[in-house]
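Review form for a predicted model. The reviewer records the input and the model, then writes brief findings.
Reviewer: anonymous (R2)
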Amino acid sequence: MSKKFEGKLFVFSAPSGSGKTTIVRHLLQQEKLNLAFSVSATSRSPRGEEKDGEDYYFISLEDFKKKMKADEFLEWEEVYRDNFYGTLKTEVERIWAQKKHIIFDIDVVGGLRIKRKYPKRTLSVFVKPPSVEVLKIRLKKRKTETEEKINMRVAKASIEMATAPQFDKIIVNTHLETALKDAEKLVSDFLNSKEETKKP
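Model under review:
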């Protein structure tokens, strides 16, 4: 019987507006890295042109709570009140069945939980904006949220930035091109390493 493929896991976490989604999308385009995106589940409604099963698995709050009780999540978190996000265990199985490595674009708490579940096979990367001020400017440029929501995200970002040292690696996204190259090298090095990650 052939050995079950168990790939590596790449966790990218950051405050909203740091550029982690852009970095993750870039890495997914690099065929040599053999990555597949872990689609998170959420109890919130779709925004803009978000597609179910592609951007997120959109499930009702009631169903989300049922899955939590049934232990169907690898990790989950209530990010804002009644606004849950999580990684379904079936999602990890789905990607490994394709013989691919998994990349997560996930919040800080969820990212650290995955690292704890698979400590040796996970590379956790924190994407840092140059400063909270720059982050606020980036969020305003998006023009997708109210001033109040932006202020909530900025307040949360300050708390999240304090967790950066708990991650294996930190990328400071001052210049996007440099950040993309740094991310590619980190992923490539970890895929090629026989030695598993150790905490810095």
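Findings: The domain at 9-192 is CATH 3.40.50.300 (Rossmann fold).
Further findings: The two ends are 38 Å apart (CA to CA).
Recommendation: see findings above.
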